Amino acid sequence: MSIEDYIVVNALGVLDNPNAVASTSASGRLVQTSDQLTIDARTLAEAHASGVTAINVTLGYTMGDFPPYQHTLGEIETWDAILRTHHEHLMRVDTAEDLIEAKRQGKIGIIYGFQNAAMMEDRPERVATFAGLGVRIIQLTYNQANQIGDGSMAPGNRGLTPLGREVVAALNEHRVMVDLSHSGEQTCLEAARISSQPVSINHTGCRALVDLPRNKTDEELRLVASQGGFVGIYFMPFLNSSGHARAADVVEHIVHAVNVCGEDHVGIGTDGTITAIDDLDAYRDRLAEHVAERRRAGAAAAGERADTFPFVPDLRGVDQFRELARLLKERGYTPTRIEKILGRNFYTYAKAVWGN
Prior knowledge:
TIM Barrel, 6-stranded parallel sheet, globular
């Protein structure tokens, strides 16, 4: 089997050409908004060439000086317009079977997802509004605390607030994935325990290998998997204690996650683009300012540094999924297990939460 035969799902990624002047992915801007994405011919051609079937794209309020609810509604409108403009290449994913349909049609499935639930404010009934607008994944917190619970960098390490428990119940009711990436440990554990549906950690690493707050403990990983959930390993600097993560580190974290969770519950959520940054030297010049600004805003995670790329340099670009498959094969993984990790496990999880 080859990558063309697999369902490949990036459980958290970016569709953008980071080399374009207007794009957010390599700009160093603190706040990245969907109307600053550059989805041009190169972006689309390289997404198709990569073999990816679907991407969970971040839209809505994550951080910054915006009114969270209104900003999020605007972001959804922006993505609706993007899909209309590029309807020959892109389609929205609402159900698990839409992943199969995207593969059949040769389109890139776009999954609407949030990386913060701050736009709920004090109204959990807004989950129904967002579900009706096509949002299929809602991450409870970013790195900071919000009204739902604590993020990974919040010092209190609280569990869910009473409002947070209401939001989880609403997400379950409306069959929206509860994503526990970026959450603090207690928020993650409590949400996983009270959720009536399986939950996910769409982009993370393993804290047993690298002790950083953005990585998840074995207890968190095991609990999520034991309830039928999904864990996506990212292509981020937090996979190596030096901050200089390589493809081999991605493999090690996948192997550890499989050992803890079982092979049916692990996938990938790269947290990056498919189109690679062409001029890494120029990007380095902007990176220090970007990291400093995130620290000033209280949004940075431990392990973000001016000398570390927020991606894995030798696992990027059009061949990133093929290269990962090759490395997993070298590690002794069977084609069936590799297929699960690249997307089949996310599809199974999506069926459990979204239905067909």
